[in-house]
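[09:14] KT: can someone run the structure on this one? pasting the chain below
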Amino acid sequence: MITIGDLKRMQEALDGALSGGVFLRKALSGMLGQKRYSIEERAWIRDMLYQCVQLKNRYWTLIKEFEEKHPGQESHEQDIRLFILAHYLERESHSAIDEEVFRELRPKSRPRKFLEFMKAGRVESLFPSPRTHFKEYLWLYHSHPLWMIRKWLGNFSAEETRQLCEFNNSLSEVTLRINPLQGSRDELLEQLRAQGHGGRATEESPFGIRLGRRFDPLTHPGFKTGRFSLQSLSSHLVCLYQNPKPNMRVLDYCAGEGGKTLLLAHLMGNRGEIYANDNQVWRLRNLQLRARNEGVGNIRLSGLRTIRKLEGQFDQVLLDVPCSGSGNFRQQPELKWKLTPEQVTELQTIQVQLLAEATPFVKPGGHVFYVTCSLFGEENHKVVRRFIYDHPEWKVVPPADYLRAHHQKGYWVQAEALARYTDASYFQVQPARHEMSGMFCAILTR
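[09:31] RB: done, C-alpha cells below
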C-alpha cells in the first residue's frame, strides 16, 4: 500500500529532480531502495514521478490558480499530492493503486479543497487557447520551456512541434540490447516470457527487445550477468548505420560508459580493435567492467597519449559529443527544465572543438561519424557546416551514398530499412515521427 510516508519520499524525489541537481532516475533509485515495494507499486511510483516532472507546467498552472484563491500554510507549487490529484482527474481509467491513493488523499484538508476547486470551474479556461496563443499553449499545457518551443517552431511545423511535445510527455517502454555472445534474442525472449515479463523483438534492430514499463531491468539477473543492457533503439540504429566491419580499427572518441562502444564491438564480431577514449576516467572504468561482464575482447581502453600515436590510422571515428539531450526528454524529462539557451550555445562551441580534435585520427578515405541526441540545429547541422567552413578539405557524405557502399544485402540491416531515417545530407531520428528518442548523425570524409 502507498502511504503518506511514501508520498513524502516522492515529494523529496520530485523536489530533487526539479529544483536540485539530482537526475530523476537517481532520485527514484534512492527512493525505491528505502523500502520493499511490490512490482505494481514500483511501477506506479516510477510512472507518477515521471508524469509529474513531464507535466510540471500544466499542474503548476492549476496549483498556482488554486493557491491564489485558497492561500494556506501548506502552499507548495510542486505539491506532489495536488499533482497526483490533477493527474487522477484528467484520466478516465484508473488502476487499483490510483484509487487507493485517491481515497487516502481525499479527506486531507488541502487536497480536499483542491478537489473542490477543480470540480467547481472550467479547468480548460486556465490555459491559453491553441488557436490564438499557440506558443503559450504549448508552454503551459504541453509543459515545455517557452524558449524551446520558439526554437522548435523555427525548425518544425506547428503540428510537428505539438506532436513532439506530446511524445516527450508520454511514458516509454523499456528497450533492451541483447549480448549476442551470451545467447540469441529468441532465447532471451523465451526466458523473459517464461518469467511472465512478455516482451517482443524490435523490427528496427536485430539486437533489440521491447518490454512494458512494469519490467525493472536493473533488478533482473540478466542485467547483472551481462546478458542484456539498457539501450535506446535510436542508439541501436545509429550504430547499425555506422556498420563497422570485422577487423577494422575504430575509435570512439567520447565513449562515456560505452553503450555504443559495446554495440559496435558486437557488430564487429568481437574482431578488430575499437579504442575507447573519454576525458572522465571513471566512465571508462565502468566501460571496462561492462566489457568484461559481456565477454567483449576487442575494446582497447587507452589514453590520448597512446591514441595520438595512431593518428591517421583509424577506419572509422565515432564522435558522440556531449549535447543538450533534447532528443531524450521522454526518458530524462528533468533535462528540459535545467537546460538554458546559453548552455546550448556553450555546447556548440565544445562540439566544434571536439570535431576538430577527432577528425585527424581517421585515415584517408575513412569516415568520421558526428553524433548527437539533440533536436537543436545549433548542435547538429550548424556545427557540421561551421566545421567544414573552417576545414574545406572535409565534406559531408550523403546517406544514400554511404548506404549504397557500406550496407550490402544481408548485413545486419539492409539499406532500405535505414533510409527512412535519412534525408539528403544526414541521418535523423525524429521522436514523434519514428516513436523513439531523437538522434542525429553526419558522416564526414576528407
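[09:33] KT: thanks! Residues 263 and 443 are 19 Å apart (CA to CA).
[09:34] RB: yep, looked fine to me
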